[in-house]
What we know:
The protein is mainly beta.
Amino acid sequence: MRPNYYSLFSVLLLAAISFAYMPKAIFSAPPEPVGAYLNGIFPDRRPAVGGSWELEDVLPGQTFYGPNRIIPFPGTEDVLLLGLDGELWRINFDNQFSDRVLDISESTFALSDAGTVGIVLHPRFGDPTAPDKQLAFIYYRTKPDAQVWDEIGYNVLSKFSWDPVNEVFDPASEEILFRQYDRYTWHNGGGMFFDEEGLLYISIGDEGADFYQDVSTQRLDGGFFSGILRIDVDNDPTRSHPIIRQPLANDDPPAGWPGTFSQGYSIPNDNPWLSPDGEHLEEFFALGLRSPHSMIQDEVTGEIWVADVGGGHREEISKVEKGDNLQWPWLEGTRPYNDNVHPDVYIGNSKGPYAEYERGTGGACIIGGSVYHGTEFASLRGKYLFADYMKNRLMAIDSDAEDGEGEIEILIDNLSGSHPTMPDGPGVTGVFPQADGSIIITVIGNRFTATPGKLYRLRRAGIVPDPPALLSEIGAFTDLQSLTPVPGMIPYQTTSQLYSDNAVKDRWMIIPNDGTYDSPSETVNFNRSDDWDFPPGTVFIKNFALNTRLGEPNQSRMLETRFFIIGEDQSYGLSYHWNEEGTEAYLAANSDFQEFEVFDEEGQLAYVQRWDYPSRGECMSCHTSAANFVLGVETHQLNSDFYYPELGREVNQLAHLDDLGVFDQSLGDLDQLPRAAAIDDEQADLGLRIRSYLDANCASCHRPGGVSGVNMDLRFNTPLFLSNIINAPNMSNASNQDGVIVKPGFHQHSQLWIRDASLEETRMPPIGRNLVDEYYVDKLAE
């Protein structure tokens, strides 16, 4: 009998079609159901610490480039908002109204630490009997070609007249009061106010670099640097006299550039350092400031408050009186700077800070606010409000404590990610109490990517309770001693790990599901070369242990277990600190540190290691909105094998997650997806290993929309020529003349290597590291 080839073909075709549509082979155990936020153990928004404060978008849908200063607009309920780019806006919060009333952006250099940084209106602005006093005084950075990058330029104080017909300040009315040639864009100052006598005060910084300190600080016979000026813009002969001495430039500007000069004002007769013979400048009211971005006069007490950005050790707040010397560059706060010695003979009254805080863990760039006298927040009355630009931390301190004895209160530990509209690469630039008792906070976006900024109003928040105080009550582990995870927790490991002072880490993720990942609230939005999007309620867990006996992995000490929670509107981190016995861990609210003895193979003390425990706000210093909050869980990091205990074998992590159905799409050929390499993988290309390391350790901040002031992009998938590091100026370290991030062939002159190999305050990363990763820095040099 002949075979029926047609029937046989039909059977085979049917089998092939059926096979093609069969579910793929399952080698992974099906997931266990787990509810969002680890079955509701964690709140869906950040728990309150040290009070319950939050932000609200005061002008929804409106953005402004570089919002920097807010002042009242007399005779109205409006305010004026000054942007770093030279734009001035008239705003009414109740009516959601904004209108630009001045634009000097064409003549403003607004990169780096520069821009239009100060504004004040004449005390008689709005008085119809004084038409010649309808003036705005503005302090800004300029140069002949203001749109071209260069460190050199001018600091200019000008006045602009109000046009009552068109209701704008007329750019053509500009009259320059002084123009000071300045060789560095940094430390320009810009705090300004008029006192009750109508005299104008302006805070100015040094020339912006350590190698210019000798000529730009602690002198009255040079230029307008490093102090507070007090001048009479009304030229009242009963209280002031004409300018006697002109300010000097500390070097010649390029050929064809204009000179340094002052004009159009007088010197108050009671300024502290008068010089009838013209031997020195008479404008100074106080000396010894480094970078006084913020200065105000308390409207009730008349006290002058200055917030001065430190150089490497301290951020400081000072109350300033006439003739004070605030001690820079001998001291920053109460600590010597670069081994400088406070001299026996100096100008004025040497004065220490009212308050100070440590750079690094405390912050790195103080932004002063004002003393709050409003009625809306009784707990803040009489407190000086301020912030830190790098930490985005909002703080307060009693204004009537003894110098050095005031206790700093943290209102919001980190503003980053605290509101859905927070710009990429945010940095708080000001805290402004308003006449109605409200408090407005200005936040700029990343300046290198021209990200617009926003205005926010501080408000009391509903109290969000903490999760359980004990790790054993969280329900993540069935046994704390073995760290046995409950069903539904997926272990993982990054290929290139974040260096954490030699700590050993275990990681898990918990993606909410009902037994299958089959809905948008249960699946991860996969991205081949960028960050993944995780559903709200996802929880990441990372455990840290320290090997206290070198060469013996079993001799370890439990340190902390961190949780990172993806919220609907807010993501946040928490840390549980382990006790010495390793039997329990306790929820922490604030930062802390502990020192551990580490012994060598012979049992001899090798060194004492400090371990820094982050505060909840410090978690957000790395888990930035620009990085989409989740770190390390990316395609190139998980495209590697991992041993799964439940499977009893190694499996590619992406394949395992794909097999579980976690992703919103099938991944296909994993060999076509990017793959990182560990720094110690000698079989891998060295360049690949370094890029992987920089991605894991640096790219959470150094990426588009990341930390302001630095234009690096160290993400794994960014080509080297687009990373902005080769022969690129290191504008965040003005104190070093070797300001190149990477100088090919010269690692000892490359700031990337210098900072990564350092334990000084300028080290990178600036937090979470107290040891140098010697293996990495050797490979980086190579």
